[in-house]
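dumping these here so i dont lose them again. two proteins, back to back, each one seq then structure tokens. dont judge the mess
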Amino acid sequence: MNAGPGDIAQWLQQARGLQRAGKRDEAAGLFRRILSADPQNADALHAFGVLHAQRGDYETAIALIEQAIAFAPENAIAHYNHGKALREAGRSDDAIASYDRAVARMPRNVDAWSNRGTILQELGRPREAVESFNRALAVDPSHIASLHNRANALNDLKLRQEAIAGYDQVLRLDPNNNFALNGRAGVLRDLGQFDEALLDYNRVFALNPDFPYIKGWRLHANMHVCNWATLVADAEELGRDIDAGKLASTPYVLIAADLSATRQLKAARTFCLDRYPASQDPLWRGGIYRHDKIRVGYMSAEFHEQATAHLTADLYECHDRSAFELHAFAIGKNDGSPMRKRLESAFDVFSDVSQRSDRGVADAIRHAEIDLLINLNGYFGGERTRVFAMRPAPVQVNYLGYPASMGAPYVDYIVADKTVIPEERRADYAEKVVYLPDTYQPNDRKKQVSERRPARRDCGLPETGFVFCCFNNNFKLTPGMFDIWMRLLGRIQGSVLWLYEGNPPARRNLLHEAQARGVTSDRLVFAPFVPHAEHLARIGLGDLFLDTLPCNAHTTASDALWCGVPVLTCLGSAFAGRVAASLVRAAGLPELVVHSLPDYETLAERLAGDPAMLVGLKRRLAENRDTMALFDTPRYARSLEAAYRTMWLRTQRNERPASFTVGEPY
């Protein structure tokens, strides 16, 4: 085609005008005409690449912009748009390199610095992200996207107060910024300031009831402060939204809500697809490792003073080192506690990867050639689900820390028992179910109990009278269970209910709820937080532990049983509502597992009025504690190892994951 420079310049101007006007097909025709006449026209290649990116054809966009850069390597905007297209194509590391080239050529471009920081944040590199956002804000201190995303990165770095200050800056500029309100609420929630978090969640909800996950977080905050006014209606609305496929709630919130395991699975699948889709470029691609020992990697944010560590420390120490090589991947804080030191000594290799990006953690796991990667967080706590989405190990397991399905295609198994997941309910779990013979939960025979044993008066308990107790987190308390408890206090003269004091608003609301049911405030006693060893020392002052529904006591139940306090529980429908039944049965007290709330109330009243029956239960706990399945950690370890061997063998044989039952250990 014969065309002079003037023609090409005119066509380019027209094509750009059509592109700005949204007439992309016409613009594309002109770009083709230009490139037919001048194949090395960098401006046309660049603009045509941007047009393809606008259409969602990122691979073509990348190829065209790369050609443009080859002919005009100093075009900073081309490097910038190359980075944008690479990010959309999922090539985040390459995108960072393009943004580096862009900011080197235009160091005062706020959007380039901001976008670079956003990608670093997505890659799990918050410290570098903060530096990039700071560069953007040095140019424009009121750049809202950079202020907001820097606050998110500061929160990921656990710099809570700095994060709150960052969200406050956004809200001074834009008081109705839902993203900043929601971000600040999340920090306040993590700090235990649920009443303040609730104010922000309510503002978000008022501005946009369909803001992603707001209904779930709002419900969860209300449950933490025991504000039950709209609890039933809110849970029902959540259920309808989940059925409709909406981003209504993060999966973790639903564990304590009165929703079925079927709905929990649907919500988990929706959340996983939204936040943590499977990588299109998995790190493990089907190769078979040939090690002398099976390499088991436990990944957790709670390798410190925390409930999961209290359950698992003895398990790690009991693993058969002649057959298994244990690796820890610590993604959470090092609190310097005796528990942390104990855990560091319990593994063959203990890797603190808390400062690494998600890709860095995944690379470390792949480099270590881990055969089985155990997820101790699920969607709880300082989880790093994106690591599992990269598939760094042949077998990936949802274990212990998250009592529900993750709904993730890259999580192969969930460890359970036939109480927490009945065989007829396996369809409610995306993972294949591995059934252990006794209970899915391990325990620590070396629990540290304070030598100082408090008296009743030290804990605010009356010198006489029956002590019902429940040390579950306040968000597990529901009005239906509270109705039963208050009726029991009304019928059992001189009895009290001893509860965990999670936060001041919850205490106030519980006292108000008791008074509304005709129970005076002196009948409720609150146990403040104390170190775990001190808590174990005081538990024995309780006479009967009253469990909750729809979410049971978990570690709290095994602690009570260890300390000789019988636990009365009612079977729920989902995993989290059946845990205490599993534990109580493994403790040899199956008669304390009931199937209805009327039976629960009847048995609680009977136990409170029959000292001989209660003494008999406590005697059985005391006499059998060291031999019962619940606290036989070596037995448990052999069962879990048998499960690991079966998972590993299936991989060695190139067999797909499948549900199976572990036999009784020898």
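---- next one ----
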Amino acid sequence: YAESEQNQSIQYRSFSERPKHMDPAVSYSSNEYELIGQIYEPPLQYHYLDRPYRLIPLTAAKMPETRYLDGQGKIINGSGNSNDIAFTEYEIELQKGILYQPHPALAQDQNDYRYHNLQADELEHMTQLSDFSETGTRELVAEDYVYQIKRMVHPNIHSPIAELMKQYIVGLDEFAKQVATVDLQTFRALPISGVQVLDRYRYRIRIRGKYPQFKFWLAMPFFAPMPWEADVFYNQSGLTDNNISLDWYPIGTGPYMLEENNPNRRMVMARNPNFHDEYYPSTGEPEDADNGLLADAGKKLPFIDKAIFILEKENIPYWNKFLQGYYDMSGIASDSFDQAVQFSGDGLVELTPSMLKKQIKLQTAVTASISYIGFNMLDAVVGGTGQDARLLRRAISIAIDYEEYISIFTNGRGVAAQGILPPGIYGYELGEAGINTYLYDWVNGHAKRKSIDAAVSLMEQAGYAKGIDPRTGEPLILYLDTPASGPDSRARLNWYRKQFNKLGIQLVIRGTDYNRFQQKMRSGNAQIFMWGWNADYPDPENFFFLLYGPNGKVKNSGENAVNYQSPEFDRLFEQMRNMDNGPERLLLIQQLQQIIRQDAPWIFGYYPKAFSLYHHWFHNLKPNLMANNKLKYTRIDIEQRQIARQQWNQPVLWPLALVVILLILIVLQVLRVQRQRSRETIK
């Protein structure tokens, strides 16, 4: 690192893969959100410290006003009956005085935009955004949020949530059909019937029916503002030819801006000099004060001047640099796990003495995600809702020992799943009430996986005694489709073979490239497969919809990858999905869990557990599995970091001294040999 950086408040992190998209209408990947979440600001955000997760205003002046309307557009008082609600309206009022980061798209010259009509000679030397000498800014207004909603359905943008939002936002589908061939000026002027700019700081979104989860989308980058000037600027052919685009150089109102984008080396986030007033939270969970997470309560954000992300393709060099203090935080790769973490006699996770000596701290959190094995419910053997197929799926679910898998392949970083909902999602239940009784027994206060004998018994009931397929008289053969490859994957796949072999089932691995695998999933030609899901927002609807019949992947290209279809499940899901949290909704969630535990379209697998290490100079770090804009809350004590780096990286001089001694001995030996030869010559 440059000496000039030593006294700056800089956070040092790494990345291993170049972010593909920086356009918030398109981006839908965690490595992209790690960057754009600090740049773009949707109207809402998650409270950094509170749990359960709670939405609060970000650029909004207050939480959106919500109104329910009947079919004639009349307001329904109260929360209303879902059957009577034809529309829901969200009215959002913005804070005044919020400015965009300095950007050439907003630079003006005599009341006209300086760089909106660039000529060929001006473009000749423009190879990166910093080549533009002038920048400008302007105030955030309601139209910017409405313009971004329009961009979701622009034919050249391909937003991954466009089709979903067409189902909900009134008039969005009709708008999409109108804008297929219009220019940008017309595109900006065309209205969406369900999205209106009310005045400079207020806008309204009307959606069909009652969909309480829509407020969670208002905290995602998809609904961040976009100034129309950015599209005009970036759509100039000379800039796109030089790869100067919104996918490479974002523009936002957030605490940071992308100062340097060199994905072959490093990416630099610098403090936005125009960032509006925002302050560190003053409340949190009861233990947050004891953990030092409220020491900065009420202080202005952000604390860090820069975040430098450095390309690291290999785990070992990255890990060594973290131990030397050159990275402020780190995950734990499998080959470094034993060096960092150990398990106590009662199974608790502890840092090793070498980590404690450096005052390194450990943070763990069960992620809001699930890793599972899916059965294609369209398959003639493992699919369908017949009793024999259901018993076969349950037997396999018992036989695959995910407790062992977690121990062997994830270093204990996971929790065996009892159902579809991970911890932290409303409806997840602890203790005996939350176990999957088809696969587990409650023994001495803990869930214990049923014995393999129970699985063998289910196989016999299903007509597959000793794993023999009655149709052929031979061992039952099942097929696992996967794009996985490499030595680590081979070890895991061999482990799966052994699990199926407990039941006498021969598992055949059908490996393929990812594109071919995706095609198999879309056409329904995969029999058994491994899959996973990360929550978009903290609501059970975001998990149960993965098994909702109309979301079937083969029929409707949805996220129901197993093509599960249950009229009872679908009926209860439709009741549950738009309800507010409460006893009535919880009862429906329990019923939904019971149906899919009984039918077993998934082997529920496990909820991954994230382990993070960070140095003692890194403050205000708390796992928040929903927020994308966490960088602004963290703080670096640069003096402590500099002291530690100096202590941990003292030059080791004894090898040099050893080399000097060896050289002296060699020289003396050479001189001795020369003298000996001289004597012999004289004689």
